[in-house]
Amino acid sequence: MRIIGLTGGIGSGKSTVAALFSELGAPVIDTDEIAHALSSPPSPALVQIAQQFGEDYLQVNGSLNRTRMRKHIYAHPGEKSKLEKIFHPLIKEIALRKLDELPENTPYALLAVPLLFETGSYASAIDRSLLVDCSIEQQIARVQARNGLNTSEIEAIIANQCPRKTRIQLANDIILNDTTLAHLQSCVKTLHQQYQDQTCRFT
Ligand code: ADP
Prior knowledge:
This protein is of the alpha/beta class. It has 10 helices and 5 strands, in the order βαβααααβαβαααβα.
């Protein structure tokens, strides 16, 4: 089974692309979904958070107190790596296990990793990378419409991600998501065929 690492900046259209591949029958393992699941009990991440940050960082129902954690990290940026050291290995372990559990005759699967190029920690797990790309102006407009964040908040997130030019240089395949959803759908269909038939070169 070939593993395609799906990535792209915030608002580029990764989730939309993942859903389109999924509609065509391709398995999608999403590291964001895994991170989300790890934030609710039962979760080994929460056990470590309670030990290293304190029980106060959990809500009464045992799930992660995101607001408190966000404020803490904002006030103490050095603590971010402590949190990442808890989450990242667990996310990777679960993602690889989920890929391993797919039926043996699966031709390919997508592994959605928003920060694929930033972290580099999935490089050995994937055979090929697929970037969903669009202009920064489109990223801002889409995230504004989706989350209601203001321009400077979105720009700050974009500034923390890999620059567009670097991502384009690193990706094996690129979907330019700068027009309609119908166009996006057609790009996904073409790539799905290539991945399934393995007519593209796998690294
Ligand atoms: P990401 O997962 O990369 O953050 P999403 O897939 O959630 O991005 O897309 C961001 C927003 O933009 C969503 O509300 C999505 O419906 C919308 N969107 C994505 N691509 C298009 C497109 N080609 N045309 C119109 N809306 C789009």
